Amino acid sequence: MFAVFFSIEQVSVKADSTDNSVEQIKKSGKLVVGTSADYPPYEFTVKENGQTKYVGIDIEIAKQLAKNLGVKLEIKNMSFDSLLVALESHKVDAIISAMSPTDERKKSVDFSNIYYTGKQYMLINKKDASKYKTLSDFKNATVGAQKGSIQYELVQEQLSSSTLKGLSKLSDLVIALQSGKVNGIVMEEPTAKAYAANNSQLVAIDPGFTESSGENGSAIAFAKNSPALVAVANKTIAQIKKQDLINKKYIPQAAKYMSTSTKNNTMWSYWTYFAKGIEYTLIITIAGVFFGFILGTFLSLMRLSESKLLHSVAVCYIEFVRGTPLMVQVMFVYFGIGAVIQSLPALTAGIIAVSLNSAAYIAEVIRSGIESIPVGQTEAARSLGMSKQETYRYVVIPQALKNIWPALGNEFVTLIKESSIVSIIGVSDLMYQTQLVQSATYKGVLPLFIAMLIYFVMTFGLSKLLNLFERKLNHG
């Protein structure tokens, strides 16, 4: 019996000795916490001195955890359904985003003790208050829930007769509710009441969900086999509970931020958000066009090459990239390649993905332009003593560029719009900033309308500039 006890103790010590999660965080000097900052009062954004500030219950817990670890706190804001992928690929050290420790999630990550428990409510339109009161009233109705959340699973289990509408952002679900696309949204009690308190057209109700005690509540998630980090988190949670900080400090503080935000939520006061979004959108687009054009030129020449190897490599690359969605490519570069190169920033990952995607389309545009040049042009150049490289440089490429300029311009314009996809990995482009404004102002449609106008101005302006350059080429 002593031998068995000793053996078990040895295994436990050995397992703990291999866990260097705390040491790595202390060595880096920062705790990177992933969250989806559209879930007041847990985590949301406010504007303070023209800058975005993350606030809420979970943010305060993250601050306390970082303080206990003796490091700085870094918040990474992304869609809720991307958080677990970010944790497993080590893009974040922890998830503090009102996440419930379900049995399914426990297979992939470690959880701390539960730090807060809230009932599951339904957010509905005020005009439907007499129609929807209990779960049975939502039979054959359309119910919304955040993808990847416990609320999404609750709808599947307890509202099987309803149509489930899942979206990544809570702000998008609120838009769907107000526009009549869904009849109700499932969310935790504090969040439902927060939206209702800041929008007179909405009301929060308790429809009577049956909740599992084992999965009810919010906990901090860590990478699998991180007992040292879990121990520090549990100590932090115990400290917070002992002083009742959530009820006495964090919730009142969040309510104050929400009240202040509501009073100053005019769109003009958030112009810096849109300006920052334009800046990042243009950076991604210009970089994508530059690197995409260079790589695309090489790929087109490889595809036209007499070398079977170069031709095959180019064809495989072009067809593969064109046959997969840009969103998947962005996530693969950030979470896949980023798992190997952990220091890869989201902006860099976004530029790489957009450039690689654009190169495949530009390659085909350039190839079609080169093939449109009559063979006689090449033969005439070669008969004058020009080498193959000189023929391409001085005869074929200049004429091809004139022919492909309209198609090339369309690709540049399209890239401005497609760059919005990088918001899924937390890049502060125009779409990402628009979502922040939605979360901060509790307004869904107006920020989207402003974003549409900005995208139109950018694409229309670029189209006119490209047309001007095209006319100069034709007159040249």
UniProtKB/TrEMBL annotation:
GO terms for molecular function: transmembrane transporter activity. It holds the Pfam family BPD_transp_1. GO terms for cellular component: ATP-binding cassette (ABC) transporter complex. Keywords: Amino-acid transport, Cell membrane, Membrane, Signal, Transmembrane, Transmembrane helix, Transport. Belongs to the bacterial solute-binding protein 3 family. Belongs to the binding-protein-dependent transport system permease family. HisMQ subfamily. The keyword DNA damage does not apply. It is found in: Cell membrane. Its main location: membrane. The chain crosses the membrane at residues 280-302, 343-363, 445-466. GO terms for biological process: amino acid transport. This is Amino acid ABC transporter. PANTHER family: GLUTAMINE TRANSPORT SYSTEM PERMEASE PROTEIN GLNP (PTHR30614:SF20), MEMBRANE COMPONENT OF AMINO ACID ABC TRANSPORTER (PTHR30614). It is a multi-pass membrane protein. Gene3D superfamilies: MetI-like (1.10.3720.10), Periplasmic binding protein-like II (3.40.190.10). Residues 278-458 form the ABC transmembrane type-1 domain. It comes from Ligilactobacillus apodemi DSM 16634 = JCM 16172.
